[in-house]
Amino acid sequence: MDTDISVNGLNNLLKSEQKSGEIAPLPKEFYLKINEKLKTFSTPDSDEYKNLFKLYTTIRERRTQKILVYLAYNKELPRPLPAEDEDLYIQIKNIINKSSGESKPSKLKVSSTIPQIVAPSGNKLGPYEQNEIVYVYDRADAKFMVENKLGETID
Predict the structure, then answer these.
(1) By CB count within 10 A, which of 9, 10, 79, 121 is most buried?
(2) pLDDT tens digits along 58-87
């Protein structure tokens, strides 16, 4: 999955993010690529730099809002996802769990590529790639994955 890191490409991405309530899957290094592109400008005073930076911040803000909605409804995030989005989701989820007295998530290594499935708890899991490290917040879901050899507990 390669995303166009131009003003037009980011503008199209922003439009699709604004139209949908779902968070769009993006490559893990998406924000890193934008930051690298911004560093190529000799001056931050150029119109292209300003436009690119504004689109970047607006996309991040919109995706942060969506992450909060996903957390409110206890929904799994789609994959792939930029590392920064996933870290934000995990950090906020840990804060919510800590304040509500829930335990921290189970860290699992996925045994094989699996499509999105519905666990017996009713939560959606996946899709996951083989050897992907995932955090499962529901203990029953983690137990289900381990018992059915879909993943193994790590850490």
Answers:
(1) 10
(2) 999 999 999 999 888 888 888 888 889 988
Q: What is the pLDDT of residues 8-33, one digit of tens each?
A: 889 999 999 999 889 988 988 899 99
- Exposed (0-12), middle (13-18) or buried (19+): which is 64, by Cβ within 10 Å? middle
Pairing of strands 124-125, 151-153: unpaired
Q: Rounded to an integer, what distance in angstroms lies between the CA atom of residue 69 and that of residue 21?
A: 9
SS3 state at 53: helix
Task: Show the domains of the chain with their CATH numbers.
Answer: 1-103 (1.20.58.1030), 105-155 (3.40.5.50)
Backbone angles phi, psi at 68, to 5 degrees: -65, -40
Residue reference for tokens 């490290």: 133
Neighbours of 130 (CB within 10 A): 10
Q: With H, G, I as helix, E, B as strand and everything else as coil, classify residue 7.
A: helix
Helix (H/G/I), strand (E/B), else coil: 109: strand
Q: Which DSSP string do the residues of 60-95 spell out, in sequence order? A: HHHHHHHHHHHHHTTPPPPSS--HHHHHHHHHHHHH
